[in-house]
Amino acid sequence: MRKVNNVLIKHIQRNIITYFVVIMFFLIGISSGAFTTKALSDSENGELIAYLENFFKIVDTKTIDNFAILKQSLINNLQTGVLIWILGVTIIGIPAILFLIGLRGFIIGFTVGFIIKQKGLKGLIFSIFSLLPQNIIIIPGIIVTGVLGISFSVMLIKSKVEKNVHNNILNQFFVYSTVIAIVYIFIALGCIIEAYISPLFVKYLSVYM
């Protein structure tokens, strides 16, 4: 555990600026998503309200298919992880990785912002218990994956530009891919929480919404 901690600390220290940039894009995405809820037209707002109310009614009356939620969550997060992994080896993928991180923040910001806008304190409580448990694990995992992708892309750029830089690209690629796979295992734990724990809160709280 001590060795693992040392590796993690060194990794963060080496990539502190990249972490700062990635987290900033994520926060900008959240802010943009929350702000967008205020820019909705009356018709768009009405459609989303109807969808939200229908969602609460369905959740309250029907049995939740936990396995289907788990499957979809794993697919969604795997797609994001694989896309970031691919972008990391394209050299020009850095802007796209930052866009994906910002998009994930936008979705969360819009969802939470809209629920709170319509339901007030109840919406805040609902958002905390329905979205926070899984995202405590999933979001850090996505951010780490993004940082790894950007770092690998930067390393490739340096190897092309700086003649004095000699990296064993194949070994670096293997390490890069392995670490991202390990991070995804942790993300999968968040998916399990999303499928089997968060729905319990959703079903219980939907009665009061």
Automatic annotation (TrEMBL):
<keyword id="KW-1133">Transmembrane helix</keyword>
<dbReference type="InterPro" id="IPR002798">
    <property type="entry name" value="SpoIIM-like"/>
</dbReference>
<keyword id="KW-0472">Membrane</keyword>
<dbReference type="InterPro" id="IPR014196">
    <property type="entry name" value="SpoIIM"/>
</dbReference>
<feature type="transmembrane region" description="Helical">
    <location>
        <begin position="136"/>
        <end position="157"/>
    </location>
</feature>
<feature type="transmembrane region" description="Helical">
    <location>
        <begin position="82"/>
        <end position="115"/>
    </location>
</feature>
<feature type="transmembrane region" description="Helical">
    <location>
        <begin position="16"/>
        <end position="35"/>
    </location>
</feature>
<feature type="transmembrane region" description="Helical">
    <location>
        <begin position="173"/>
        <end position="197"/>
    </location>
</feature>
<keyword id="KW-0812">Transmembrane</keyword>
<dbReference type="Pfam" id="PF01944">
    <property type="entry name" value="SpoIIM"/>
</dbReference>
<protein>
    <submittedName>
        <fullName>Stage II sporulation protein M</fullName>
    </submittedName>
</protein>
